[in-house]
Every structure is written in structure tokens, then in C-alpha cells.
Amino acid sequence: MSGLSPERLARAYLVRVAEPPAPALAVFVAEVGPVDAADAVRKGTCPQRVAEETGARRELDLVRDDFAAAGRLGARLVIPEDDEWPAWPLLSLQLAHSRGIASAAPPLGLWVRGESRLDEAAEAAVAIVGARAASGYGENVAGEFAYGLAARGHAVISGAAYGIDGAAHRGALAADGVTVAVLGCGLDAGYPAGHVVLLNKIAGQGGLVISEYPPGTPPARHRFLVRNRLIAALSEGTVVVEAGRRSGARNTATSAGVLGKVVMAVPGPVTSAVSVGCHDLIRDSAATLVGSIEDVVDVVGRLSAQTPDRAKPRARATDGLGADALRVHESLERRRGKSAEQIATESGVPISRVRAVLPALELEGFAEHGESGWQLSKPRGRTRTEAGHGQPKRQGGAPDDKRRRGDA
Amino acid sequence: MSGLSPERLARAYLVRVAEPPAPALAVFVAEVGPVDAADAVRKGTCPQRVAEETGARRELDLVRDDFAAAGRLGARLVIPEDDEWPAWPLLSLQLAHSRGIASAAPPLGLWVRGESRLDEAAEAAVAIVGARAASGYGENVAGEFAYGLAARGHAVISGAAYGIDGAAHRGALAADGVTVAVLGCGLDAGYPAGHVVLLNKIAGQGGLVISEYPPGTPPARHRFLVRNRLIAALSEGTVVVEAGRRSGARNTATSAGVLGKVVMAVPGPVTSAVSVGCHDLIRDSAATLVGSIEDVVDVVGRLSAQTPDRAKPRARATDGLGADALRVHESLERRRGKSAEQIATESGVPISRVRAVLPALELEGFAEHGESGWQLSKPRGRTRTEAGHGQPKRQGGAPDDKRRRGDA
């Protein structure tokens, strides 16, 4: 426990007490920071709506146990204060949440198993998802697409379920690519049972197994739905390979649509029940038809072209911001700090939204919070680092540390 | 020959001398009528552009031979002056042509084999077309769709080719429905050889085999492309079941799009080369994805709901007219005739377009040409009839004749 920063300990506690998504808690943490938020939750002095989200478990302080369990799995808790936090992909959640979509509340932290950096894995990631009761055709296509995308340097994100998900992870592994499994249960849940070996392989071969649920959390249907927003958010686009009519595909598509991410669907024989959901998505213009890896790369490539290079100044980055975030950003100045209230007055954006948007802008390097208040961030001014536990374990610390600071 | 009206003889001659589509000839016939047009073509006194379209064959008067050959096949020449002329569906060609699309020039007449009335067959028709080198999956889908549509009272139109076309015709026949084969050669060409029996079955079992090419015309690639506009025009919508990347599907889709008809495409496995064309059409929004007969009926039903019932006054019928046609229609009066020049001045539509649009409006019963010029047609005022040859042969003339006049 010693060596873990107060922020990491606070977030481990909050991740444990609140069932995601926890919209009020997310706003509260953004406003007062994780340490004060955890303190207020523990003492019961937090706002009413935060208390409602955290009341049931707030006296259940299992942080020590969680880190011990994670240690046994070789897992770490990645938090927004870490450089490897996938701030850019998750900004989509933050912005959707600030538009009032409660179910898009961003995660307070992510338990992560595997050697790769989470932010790098999510950089040009494509999600490949679909039916558990997939056909041979569907599993072949999922495997082929995942192989081809991984071979081209795209990480393949999926949900580790049987059927399409498993085929996607295996396809990426076969190409020696990066694949990320996002679970709807704790990393130690051993679920699904038939994929325990696959999950070990993913974590051991350069991929990641991640979850916003603390160790010991059992799988549940609602958790898979909540989890789907992370699959959508962490990817540049989601490919639905096979899906029945009433399937998670619609949920995935809705999530991705809300987050402004692209949804792609693979057609199949009209005689196949597991292609019906894909055809519905395409017919309803909720998804773009993709028939080949090239089609997917085309779509994702177009998106990547719009995403600013992390190494370059974010001149065009504000293109991706929502209207409120843009107005807040425009009211910031380089040399003079302002209070959230002042920004609300100047921008005309409601104070509650300003409070939600500012941390998102900070995470992405658009804004910073100094002594005099919020202001435009200095170019390339972000170098948060934190030594010790909770960081990915790599051999040869020095070059890695340098890389982790984003100075390379 | 005696008993054939001058219009029918004139059109038989014109159909023979001009290779379709013959845009200048179509305009000329619309302006001066078929008898004078044929006379001018024969004598070489027609306008230059008409002469270019007809010069090569104008001395080749095979009308007698054509009717004799048609008689041996049990075929007739259906012309715009006949009540069974499918004026409403073909109006799409007339309007596209009047917008300057030369390749949409309407046919001058159609050689027809089979007992049904052509206008009735085309009333709620759906085209089902696709690859010759179809897969078993594609042929099954084509057959199933055709069966289901025919069973619901939709005629199934196709091109009589091997593969998808043949499966579509056979599916409709299996449902005891109406199917129409539109050929790119003369009705007596015996093409494709393997479908001669099928074509005989179509003509003998309540369907129709039609062509704008006179008897003896051999098949040719360009004729199939020209023929495609008729398949598109005669149908409310076209379903492409399977198509390779560089196939006639794109041509069919373009034709249908130009004519304001809906194009539908059936998806298939992304691993199948003959589904690539369908997927391209869907991805490019050139076609609506259909995965079931219900999907097709939905799309076609929506269209039918917009199409005025032939038995009712055409109150909403002008909804289907192009902008120019609407403006021309609006400048017509009930009690006072106007010249084309006068209408052009009043409507602001160029005189050449007015001249092309007026006959189309007349064909559809929106306008009529009286002694004082063009005027709004009297409600239900169309009762052109013509006895004798060139009409479909039915048993029991009386009720049929009544039906044919549209008085039922």
C-alpha cells in the first residue's frame, strides 16, 4: 500500500464502492478531485446524488484486498492521473456525459492486466464484436478481419465472449498483434470459463485484459451492457460481425453512436439468423457496411486522419470537441486564470457543464488549472509522472520511464 | 395487314428502322405523331438528327415480315395508342428523357408474347435481377423472393438470363404468379438457348415475354444495357440479388436511379465474389438493403401508397411528376386550349421541354390535345380503343373489351 499515491488509493476505493456508470460521482470527482471525493464519500458528507450512488458499499473498504488480488494476477489500477490513461479515446465518454448522457459516465479507473501501455493499445484500436452463437462464417470473418487489422498495427478490442469476440482475439494473437479484452466482471472472475486460457494468452502476449470492476466482481448482464460503452469508447470504430435481431449489437451501436464513434457491420447470408442484426443496422443507417479488411481500414483511416498526432501540437484537436467544450475552450486565456463561474458567464455554458467539461479539456491538454484558476495550457506542458506501484511493469526502467512521460 | 391501324403499322416500321434508344425519333414521334413521323422518315424529309437515327435502315420496310413472324409466335405489337400500353410506369422514361437523358428515350412500341395485359402486369411489378454466374445461395434467394412476391400479387420482371434472372422467373411461375421477361433481342431469337422452354412457359402460363426489338434481332451486349432501362421503368423497384463488382447491377441501379425508381440489394457472405456488387451498391447508398420478402414488400408498398390507384381520380398523381412537368401541368386550363409556345411562355419551361412533356402528360391523362390546343383533360375522359389485331387474344371478348377500356 505504501508507494501508492493518494489518488490511486482514493480511486481504488471509489471504483469499489460505486457500481458503474456512476454519473454523479464522476462529476463530483471531476470537481473536487479523487482524494477529497473519496474522503467525502467515506464520511457521508458528499452531495445527495453521489451518496445515492455510493451509499450501499461506502463502508466496504477493500482497497487493500483489491490491490493484493490484483498483485496475484499481475494487474494494476490505471487512473486518469497516469500517463498511460487513454484520455483521448475516453474523452468521447466525458463529452457525452457532459451533454447529459448519464450512461456515458467515464470510468473512475481501470484494472489492467498485461504489459502494454493502455493508451498506446487504444491509439488506433478497432473493436470487433458479435454474437456468442456465431456461425462458422462469422467466426472466420471475425478471425480474418482481426488478423488483418492487427497485422496492420491496429489493436483489436473485444469482449472476450464466446463466438465472434473469441475469434477476434484469437485472430489478433495469430498476427502477433495487440488485442484488448474488456470484461464485464472482475479480472479474477474466470469468466467465461472456456476463455480463461485465452485471457491468460492475451495478457501474456502483449495484449491487455481490462475491467472497471474490482477483483471479485461476478459477471452480470447489466455489467456487459455498461462495459460495452468502454469497448466503443476505446476504439476508433466498432465492427459488428454477426448479431441476431435482439442482440447486444444494437446496444453497441447505440453506445458508439452516442460517443460519435463509427459503427461498421458485416453482411451475411439473409438466410442466417445471426446476420439479421447486422442487416438491420445497415438498413437503418446505424452502421456502415464493411465487406473486407480494406473497407474497415478505409473507414478507420479516415477517422485517424482526423485525430491529431499525439506528438504534434493539438492545433486541429478542438475539431473533435462538442459545442459546449469548444465555447468553454474559447473563453480560456493563456496568461490569465478564470474561475468556472467566470467561464460560465463568459461562454454562456451552464456552470454544471463548465465544471464537467473543464477536467475533460485538462485531460486532453487543452486547459490547465493553476493558482489563478483555469487557463489555456502551455504547449506540450503535460508531464505528469508517478513512480512506483500501479504502473506497467517493464524490463529496463529507464527508456521506459522516458517513454511513459511522453517525451520520446 | 388489313385491320392494323395506321399508327400500329407506322410504329412497327419505326421500331424496325431505329436502334433503341432513339431519342430524336422519340421526340419527333411525340411532336408529329407516328404516322407522319414514319412518312417523313421513309421519304427522308425528317429532321437531321432523326435521319441520323433512322438513315441506315429506313429503306428496309419489313413490317409485313415482322407481323408475320410475330403471328407465328403468337406475339403482338403493343403501342402507346393501346389501352394496355404501360403508360404510367413508362412515364418515368418520358420524364427522364425530357430532362435531357437521351438513354432514357421511351420505346416506340413493344413486341409482346403472352395472354396478360402489359399494363396490368406492370402495375405492381418488382424486378429481380442479378448475376448469370450466380451461387446456389443467390438462386435460392431469387427464387424465394420471386415466389413470395408473386404469391402476394406482384408481377416479377427480369431479363431471362441464366442464374438469378432464370431463378426469379421460375420462382414466380411456381407461385402461379405473373412474370415478365424483357429481352435484349427479338422474341424469336431463341436466346438464351437453355431458356427457350422457360420463355415458352412464361408466355403460356399467364406471363409475358417482351422486347422493343423486332423479330429476327440477334442479342448483343449493348442491347442488354438498353433493355435494362425497360426492366427498371416497368417495375416499381429493382432487387439486385447477386452481382460481381463490374456487373450489369451498377447499370441497372443507374437506370433505376435516373428514373426515380428504388433499387434494392440482397447482401450475402463477404467471402462471395458475386455479392460484392450488392455490397457496393448498399455501401454507396445506391441501393436499400433487403433481407426478406417483407423488406421488399415494405419498400414497394411505400411506393405503391404513393402511386395513385388507376380507378380513382388522379388527385395526387401529379406528386410523381418532375418539376417541369408540374409547371406545364399548372399552366393548363380546363376550358381553354393553349399552344405549346403559349404554355412555354406562361410556365417558363423551354419550348423543347414543353413539347416533350405534353405528350407524357397526355398519356397519363393529365392533359389532352383538342381543337383549340392543349388543355387539362376531362376527368376519366380517356377511352381510346382499337379493335382487331395487335390486341391480346382472350376468350370472351365482351367483358374483356370493357375491361380494356378502363371502364370497369
TrEMBL record, chains A, B:
Region (Disordered): 370-408
Classification via Pfam families: DNA_processg_A
InterPro entries cross-referenced by the UniProt entry: DprA (IPR003488), DrpA_SLOG (IPR057666)
Family statement drawn from the similarity comment of this UniProt entry: Belongs to the DprA/Smf family.
Smf/DprA SLOG domain ranges (all copies): 77-299
Superkingdom in the source lineage: Bacteria
NCBIfam families: dprA
Composition-biased stretches (Basic and acidic residues): 399-408
Protein name: DNA-processing protein DprA
